[in-house]
């Protein structure tokens, strides 16, 4: 009898739980780690995550625990679905608990403040595992739709293609179609920067600037993401795929997107503090706009939309002033 693949998912937010559903539907035995014991108890007793995915029935082969050692034990895949800025501290605590040959899978879409490291780099730095044991899942994956088993596609990226194929098989379901890619740099940057561009588009929507502005921000946002990716060694074709354009379009067009919603509230005139108070889950772009801009400056890459979002979010620049300044930049050829 073939032993089922075991997966541990660290993080019971909406995307961590939804990805746990995917793994379970694909035949894996899944253990969710919850920070709060009462949430783990609720998952086990009600077969639902009442805090993040209310009304979604969880498969029987998902269970939850608040004990990280119990979650990590014997896991073939250890999935990290936590806010990117907490990754280093959490990984340091969990490192002794990880199964010896587990593949570490990042669902995190961000760049670390201070170090300007991508999430796979943080994982490698803290756990001291090789890049061939670190994978990334990214793409247009709005958790609520996936939890409802609506069709979606994603990219499974790892420098070792065989590892990517193993993970692909472990999360392939009739409604979730994963593709493999070995360009981890490009896939991670697409996921991190799209959150920043999602904020920008949300701000524009909140200001009532129209669909032409939205289309322009999405397109020019993709251009600056690609510039940064190429400077870091990514394949530019990655940004025309699911990890780039696909994720960007979903984030910038859906009311289910946390970053778009956060930006919309800012564009409507809410202060940063009011917007944070109104947001129940992490909008990664709020902190990533700072770290992405830091990464761009280190590599001398011009990212005007990212810089504008940073000025609005962290320097208090009024959106109407920021938009005027962005539109009055000197004219240049499109492909520069």
From TrEMBL:
Localisation per UniProt entry: Cytoplasm
HAMAP family: NAD_Glyc3P_dehydrog (MF_00394)
Active site per the UniProt annotation: 194 (proton acceptor)
Chain residues that bind NADPH: 14-15, 35-36, 52, 109, 143, 258, 284
Domain Glycerol-3-phosphate dehydrogenase NAD-dependent N-terminal stretches: 6-163
Family named by the database record: Belongs to the NAD-dependent glycerol-3-phosphate dehydrogenase family.
Annotated ranges, domain Glycerol-3-phosphate dehydrogenase NAD-dependent C-terminal: 183-323
Name under which the protein is recorded: Glycerol-3-phosphate dehydrogenase [NAD(P)+]
One Gene Ontology MF term: glycerol-3-phosphate dehydrogenase [NAD(P)+] activity
EC number(s) recorded for this UniProt protein: 1.1.1.94
Biological role stated in the UniProt entry: Catalyzes the reduction of the glycolytic intermediate dihydroxyacetone phosphate (DHAP) to sn-glycerol 3-phosphate (G3P), the key precursor for phospholipid synthesis.
Location (main, coarse): cytoplasm
NCBIfam families per UniProt: PRK00094.1-2 (NF000940), PRK00094.1-4 (NF000942)
Binding positions (sn-glycerol 3-phosphate): 109, 139, 194, 247, 257-259
UniProtKB keywords: Cytoplasm, Lipid biosynthesis, Lipid metabolism, NAD, NADP, Nucleotide-binding, Oxidoreductase, Phospholipid biosynthesis, Phospholipid metabolism
Enzyme class: oxidoreductase
Pathway field: Membrane lipid metabolism; glycerophospholipid metabolism
InterPro entries in alphabetical order: 6-PGluconate_DH-like_C_sf (IPR008927), 6PGD_dom2 (IPR013328), G3P_DH_NAD-dep (IPR006168), G3P_DH_NAD-dep_C (IPR006109), G3P_DH_NAD-dep_N (IPR011128), NAD(P)-bd_dom_sf (IPR036291)
Organism domain of life: Bacteria
Pfam family, one: NAD_Gly3P_dh_N
Catalyzed chemical reaction(s): sn-glycerol 3-phosphate + NAD(+) = dihydroxyacetone phosphate + NADH + H(+); sn-glycerol 3-phosphate + NADP(+) = dihydroxyacetone phosphate + NADPH + H(+)
Originating gene: gpsA
């Amino acid at each position: 009898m073939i032993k089922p693949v075991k997966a541990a998912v660290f993080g019971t937010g909406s995307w961590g739980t939804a990805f746990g559903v995917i793994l379970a539907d694909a035949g894996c035995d899944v253990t969710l780690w919850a920070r709060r014991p009462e949430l783990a108890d609720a998952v086990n007793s009600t077969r639902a995550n009442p805090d993040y995915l209310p009304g979604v029935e969880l498969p029987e082969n998902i269970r939850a625990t608040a004990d990280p050692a119990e979650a990590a034990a014997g896991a073939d895949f250890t999935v990290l679905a936590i806010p990117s800025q907490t990754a280093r501290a959490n990984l340091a605590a969990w490192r002794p608990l990880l199964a010896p040959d587990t593949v570490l899978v990042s669902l995190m879409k961000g760049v670390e403040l201070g170090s300007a490291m991508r999430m796979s780099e943080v994982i490698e730095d803290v756990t001291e595992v090789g890049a061939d044991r670190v994978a990334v899942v990214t793409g247009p994956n709005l958790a609520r739709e996936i939890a409802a088993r609506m069709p979606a596609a994603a990219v499974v990226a790892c420098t070792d293609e065989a590892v990517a194929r193993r993970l692909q098989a472990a999360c392939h379901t009739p409604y979730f179609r994963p593709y493999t890619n070995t360009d981890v740099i490009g896939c991670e940057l697409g996921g991190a920067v799209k959150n920043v561009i999602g904020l920008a588009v949300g701000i524009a929507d909140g200001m009532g600037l129209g669909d032409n502005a939205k289309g322009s921000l999405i397109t020019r946002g993709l251009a600056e993401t690609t510039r940064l990716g190429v400077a870091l060694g990514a394949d530019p074709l990655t940004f025309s795929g699911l990890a780039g354009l696909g994720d960007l379009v979903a984030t910038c067009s859906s009311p289910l997107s946390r970053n778009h919603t956060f930006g919309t509230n800012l564009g409507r005139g809410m202060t940063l503090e009011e917007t944070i108070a109104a947001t129940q889950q992490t909008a990664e772009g709020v902190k990533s706009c700072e770290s992405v801009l830091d990464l761009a400056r280190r590599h001398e890459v011009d990212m005007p939309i990212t810089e504008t979002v940073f000025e609005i979010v962290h320097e208090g620049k009024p959106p109407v002033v920021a938009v005027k300044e962005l539109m009055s930049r000197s004219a240049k050829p499109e492909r520069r």
